[in-house]
Amino acid sequence: MQHLLQDLFEKRVNQFVSYKRSHKQLFFPKAEQKQAALANRSAEIVKVKAAGKILEESIEEEFQTLKYQAHYQYLIKQNGILYMEEEMEERLAKFYKKTLVMDEEIRPILETEPHQEMEPNLLALEQQEERLSYEYNRLKAVQYAERWWNSYNPAYKKFQNDCTNFISQCLHAGGAPMRGYPKRDAGWWLQNQNWSYSWAVAHTLRLYFGNSKSGLRAKEVSSPEQLLLGDVICYDFEGDGRFNHNTIVTGKDGYGMPLVNAHTYNSRMRYWAYEDSSAYTPNIKYKFYSIIDE
User: Which pTM value belongs to this model?
Assistant: First the structure.
């Protein structure tokens, strides 16, 4: 069944590049959405590569079903510069007599807050005289984000929804000190197969950034262009006040806007606004946090 997947990619990749598109090709919403988002930024894809790996397969009479992982690499041109964006996604394709009849993304489950009652105690340690000085090494944080954007460091626990755990690892690689153990609703830490909510839950990390006065701290800025490499963006896709995704800034595009790496939606050098994501809604809200050295 690998040949069916390879044939599918060969038919799809040209749809991302405007001058190679054909009206005879089947409509591929992902390519249309990607091109529209790039056009809004005066950018374009000049080359794309796609590779796939079969995760599950089944055959029932003349129907073939494939669950597969797709790895896209986009060479993007904008304002005279070129950069490479990458992303991973899982998809489900169905074929009838080897003819494609369905192909759709399997959307990751967004983070939900497991313990709403923890918020009043989130900053319990802030009343203590605890000053942890450190120098945030932005280069090391970015290097970590680049090394592990599409894999998982065995030194850390892997979460089903791994976006915030990944960001915490990047921050720690940059020198941010853990504190608060063993209180799960205070501080920011991971130790002995246990962790604070702020380490692994998107909304709680956002609350922590907004209130922490010691150790890992961040200041909120008003616009994405104010962010530096190693800073963090928090996403509330539905605009309901509960943040469910985080990314780390790893580069800048041709106009100085952030490009980010992330897990769950495994991606690197992705434009910060996520307008080309299936999770995007018109109600999306963002928080921009710049890490503070002590």
Answer: 0.91
